[in-house]
Write a structure and sequence with these properties.
Layout (H helix, E strand, L loop, with lengths): L5 H9 L6 E5 L2 E5 L3 H21 L1 E4 L3 E3 L4 E3 L3 E5 H4 L12 E6 L4 H14 L4 E6 L4 E6 L8 E7 L4 E3 L5 E3 L5
Parallel strand pairs: 7-8
Antiparallel strand pairs: 1-2, 3-6, 4-5, 6-7, 8-9, 9-10, 11-12
Length: 177
């Protein structure tokens, strides 16, 4: 009998959790559930991004993101991805996104602030938007690399417009978050 590949086994298992969305955080399976405040913040972001999606030929959603070579499999709160990559696709990788957004809540704050920020940069997500409901701030990270993001815009208190650079070229109204 051959050796068990832990990465493959975990990622196989997380895709088969019944009735729940689940992700793997550094080797630990975590079921994803959202409260209404969380859903509200996701809805506000999606509504503001909607005008840019058709011209960019993109969709916004919360599909699976694989981080190959690690014990991580994420379900972002919102990701913007090119539409052509979504047809028939399973998980994408962060580098295939245009933007990944996480809405930090009491149960996810440390993971979203530290772990996911580091991993999204390492795996090439060009923009990482952190909506921190506990701190009531929004921070945009850009310039991904192996050691993290090289550009940080924020944290900005809710109510401060946050500029999403091209290809979006819009100011997010954060007052409704």
């Amino acid at each position: 009998m051959g050796a068990v590949d832990a990465e493959h086994a975990l990622k196989y298992a997380v895709q088969r959790v019944r009735g729940e969305r689940a992700e793997v955080l550094e080797g630990v399976i975590d079921c994803v559930s959202y409260g209404w405040d969380h859903e509200h913040a996701r809805s506000v972001l999606r509504a503001q991004l909607s005008a840019t999606l058709d011209p960019l030929k993109c969709i916004a959603g919360s599909g699976d993101l694989d981080l190959p070579g690690s014990l991580n499999w994420y379900v972002p709160d919102l990701a913007v991805v090119p539409e052509h990559l979504t047809r028939g696709a399973g998980a994408l990788v962060p580098g295939q996104t245009l933007l990944v957004a996480e809405v930090a809540s009491e149960s996810t704050a440390q993971t979203d602030r530290v772990l996911k920020r580091k991993r999204y940069a390492e795996y090439g997500a060009p923009l990482y938007l952190l909506v921190d409901r506990l701190e009531k701030t929004v921070t945009l990270f850009a310039g991904p690399g192996r050691l993290g993001y090289t550009k940080v815009d924020g944290p900005h208190p809710f109510g401060t417009p946050v500029r999403l650079p091209e290809p979006f070229g819009i100011d997010l109204d954060t007052s409704g978050l």
